[in-house]
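Troubleshooting entry. Yesterday's outputs looked truncated, so today I'm pasting the complete records for two proteins to confirm everything comes through intact. If either block looks cut off, that's the bug. Protein one:
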Amino acid sequence: MPTTPATLRDLFRATLDGLREMHGLLEQESVALGGRDAAALERIALTKQELVPILDRLAAEQRRFFAAGPGGIGGIEAYLAGAKPEADLAGALRADWREILRLLAACKHQNEMNGAYIGLLRRHVENALDILHGPAQAEATYGRDGVKRRGGVHSRRFYAV
């Protein structure tokens, strides 16, 4: 891969396109979670699964760009710091990099919010099951992910409540 500013600009632009799409998907996921829209959540999850490898490939290409770059540059920050302000594309590369960082932070935040909402929904379901079956604290175990799992037979039946 050539290590020209134009090559980096193309990588940045492709990354920006992918991050914008991911951010949009995360926002759609939030709406679908609020609306309990299982079909939309499934569609969004499939699209996200297709997009993640593309973003991973672009990040790997950027790492290769800097590994092959002139003078053993140490990454994007060093590359941008060494770029002369008047050089072609230097300003655009800096602006694109700032936008990449902003979108990464926005995606991370939205993903964390969606994850918290999923956790809340899970607790609501567990509470509803406790109401139907009675709390099964003695039967509950925790999986590797730290989530409580319900055991076998409950001591109380719905009709006995």
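Protein two, checking that the full record survives here as well:
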Amino acid sequence: MQKPLSELIADELKQKIWNEEIQLGERLLETDLAESYDVSRSTIREALKILESEELVVSQARKGTYVADFTNQDINEMIELRTLLESHAFTQAINRLESHHTKDLEAIVDEMKQKADEKDWNGLFDLDMKFHSYVVGLCGNTRIIKIYDSLQVQIRTFLMHLDRYYSSTQAFYNEHKQLLEALVSNDVHIVNDRVREHIEYVETKLLGQSSDIEFKEV
């Protein structure tokens, strides 16, 4: 079943934000978007409401709608929550990991290798989300899965800045190859360490270099 037009437009706007064609903090004008997509303003309004529900845009009374401009505190809170959720979910997934799950994850990592060879950061970040979501989906806790799903857009938005902090696309790919190897090892401690190292690297780079990516101080 095809998505409603408003959802398709919301998805395209997300991609433009992640590709940095639309900047964090930029104002989104209904009239301009309606003309650009050749749709009614009501359709654009619905699309922006979708993005607002995902906390990717904010609407301000008498000021308009803007792409969310995240603060250092936002980053810190997101990384802390992601660490808590993923370290638990990944270790719980070990006992539920079957051969067909491993093959699915290997296929994702193989795709990441291809994107790494092509130096396609956006493709890598999309596959990063796919990999982590797949493993979290195996944890057996429907509430953790639901909470994690609700954070997808915000996590993906933070990822858009990471390309400048990894030495190469291969380094980013290698981290996920190591995460998969850890899962296959069935060693809870190794998995927990790998997940925390992976996410804490993001924290160190984003918070340590936040002035470079123009996140606001609080």
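Both blocks look complete. Sanity check on protein two: The chain has a mean pLDDT of 88.
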